[in-house]
Specification:
two-stranded antiparallel sheet; mainly alpha
Length: about 110
């Protein structure tokens, strides 16, 4: 049985993964492209090659460092400015959730919102 603060989520390929009540993937190794496609679709976002490059870069940086990296520099490296990011994803926090990363912590959430 799942802890009360966790929820099951079924992705586009009908795989079960565990997210918390705020929508963060608990175990980033459970991530799949179909998870991100489903979360993006729910948020009304159509993902294109640039979006995927951004998502994959953020995931790669987080998983290699084990910590939040400056999203502004990552976005700039893949050709997104902060206004475009906000227009496309709503916030850095929403991008983080769609990318299938775990809760970055209270301080980071305040910064990313």
């Amino acid at each position: 049985m799942l802890p009360a603060s966790y929820l099951e989520y079924i992705d586009d390929s009908e795989n079960y993964v565990i997210i918390d009540k705020q929508g963060y993937l608990i175990d980033p190794s459970d991530w799949s492209r179909s998870f991100t496609q489903g979360r993006a679709r729910e948020a009304g976002i159509e993902l294109h090659a640039r979006h995927w490059r951004l998502i994959e870069t953020i995931r790669e940086k987080y998983l290699s460092l084990g910590a939040l990296t400056p999203l502004r520099s990552i976005c700039k490296a893949v050709g997104f400015d902060k206004h475009e990011l906000k227009q496309q994803f709503g916030s850095c926090l929403n991008l983080w959730k769609i990318a299938g990363l775990p809760d970055p912590g209270e301080e980071a959430r305040a910064y990313m919102n």
